[in-house]
Write a structure and sequence with these properties.
Number of strands of chain B: 10
CATH superfamily of chain B: Pleckstrin-homology domain (PH domain)/Phosphotyrosine-binding domain (PTB)
Number of strands of chain A: 1
Structural class of chain B: alpha+beta
Largest interface: A-B, 19 and 22 residues
Radius of gyration of chain A: 20 Å
Oligomer: heterodimer
CATH class of chain B: Mainly Beta
Strand content of chain A: under 5%
Strand content of chain B: 25-35%
Structural class of chain A: mainly alpha
Strand order of the largest sheet of chain B: 5-9-10-8-7-6
Number of helices of chain A: 9
Helix content of chain B: 25-40%
Helix content of chain A: over 70%
Distance between the termini of chain A: 69 Å
């Protein structure tokens, strides 16, 4: 088997073991929503092959740019399109299962919204590990490297799985908040996603180095984690778990 | 004074495992010549080792004036008159960690639902006896929970 596929298997296993056990302890009563991650699993393949790929090739053809061409010479509007394509398409598709009546009914309150989104997004992230691994396995050059050389892939996809969960969680938390909640939520998730991808695009254009792009990504990831902790604290405070009060001092 | 040992846990084994990992880092740092890094890791290894030794002796003492939670050199005194509420509940994890792991939680531990709780417990999340005082919240896990609660309730009613 191609070493990058082994790396994908290891990354997927580590993601499930680490993130889902962490989520299990953090989610409190909402941990029973974990099964929705299964719905997110195939969505990366669907959006990449069914939407992003054809749209990207179509726009590149319209612009007269070969998809394989270096981006350094591409016009700014094309760079903006490339930067926004993944966030717009992926944030939309990640949240699509909420249209199912069974899930829609569960979208009550900030806690349920947050964890429904986190599990859906993390499921998407897990599927993306497989998709990216599959795409990279087409490279004969990468087949010469041992599996332990793919630690960069492992670390980035590990963080990416959680990041996808947080972005969808943010989207749904804002979606349940008010009249224009869905718009605010979608724009916020797309904004976070764009911010996270910005470093990689700048590296492809040659503005920053790959190392600087990685630092940028992990910086944005830390910001996402802080946002996630804040939303989770708020949701837990809004719906405290059952407590058996043994003694309470009067007054 | 009645003494109640904390519930048994496998926390010590986890901490010993952690100690071995940290000692491994110390040895690696020393071998590659980064001796200052070894010196940075060494106090953590020592603290982990001591923690593993202290944990099995964790206990709660119901004295005439106060409840005292003890683990090694750490002692928390909770005068009965200052206790506002005692509740038995599960706590929700906040991944920003302190001295906490499977089977142990000690000192200031942040939780998503209760904020920072002063823990002296052999469980980190499940079935914690949360004692709210006028100053802060404490989390404890007596082995004989029913017996402890009966005794504590009696003393709190008298206070």
């Amino acid at each position: 088997m191609h070493p990058v596929l082994w790396a994908a298997v290891i990354t997927g296993a580590l993601s499930v073991a680490f993130w889902f056990s962490l989520f299990h302890h953090m989610a409190g009563p909402h941990r029973k929503l974990a099964w929705v991650a299964i719905l997110g699993l195939p969505l990366s393949l669907v959006v990449n092959l069914g939407m992003k790929g054809p749209v990207y090739r179509g726009v590149a053809s319209f612009a007269g740019i070969s998809p394989e061409e270096a981006l350094a010479s591409a016009p700014v509007w094309f760079l903006a399109f490339r930067l926004l394509l993944s966030p717009l398409a992926e944030e939309a598709v990640k949240v699509a299962p909420v249209a199912l009546p069974g899930l829609r009914r569960r979208l009550v309150g900030q806690g349920a919204a947050l964890w429904l989104g986190v599990y859906l997004g993390a499921g998407f992230g897990l599927g993306e590990i497989g998709y990216v691994g599959w795409r990279l396995s087409a490279s004969a050059a990468l087949a010469e490297y041992p599996v332990w050389m793919f630690t960069g892939f492992l670390a980035e996809r590990l963080a990416g799985t959680c990041a996808h969960g947080i972005m969808t969680g943010v989207l749904l938390v804002l979606a349940v908040k008010g009249r224009y909640g869905w718009i605010a939520g979608f724009l916020s998730a797309v904004g976070l996603h764009t911010l996270a991808n910005l470093g990689a695009l700048l590296a492809q254009v040659g503005v920053v180095t790959l190392g600087q792009a990685q630092i940028w990504f992990y910086g944005v990831f830390v910001l996402m984690l802080l946002l996630f902790l804040r939303f989770n604290r708020q949701s837990v405070a809004a719906s405290p778990g059952p407590a058996q009060v043994v003694f309470r001092r009067p007054g | 004074m009645n003494v109640f040992p904390a519930a048994s846990s496998r926390g010590s084994y986890w901490i010993l495992g952690m100690t071995l990992v940290i000692l491994g880092l110390v040895v690696m740092a020393w071998l590659i010549g980064v001796w200052w890094l070894a010196l940075v890791f060494l106090p953590f290894a020592l603290f982990s080792l001591l923690l593993a030794l202290w944990l099995p002796g964790m206990r709660y003492e119901l004295g005439s004036q106060a409840l005292m939670a003890r683990c090694g050199p750490f002692r928390f005194t909770l005068p009965y008159g200052e206790i506002l509420e005692v509740a038995r509940q599960d706590l929700v994890l906040n991944p920003i960690s302190s001295v906490r792991g499977p089977g142990f939680a000690l000192l200031w531990v942040p939780y998503a639902d209760e904020g920072v709780v002063m823990m002296c417990a052999t469980r980190a999340l499940k079935d914690i006896l949360l004692v709210t005082t006028v100053r802060r919240k404490y989390g404890i896990t007596p082995g004989n929970m029913e017996g402890f609660l009966e005794e504590l309730s009696g003393r709190l009613q008298e206070s």
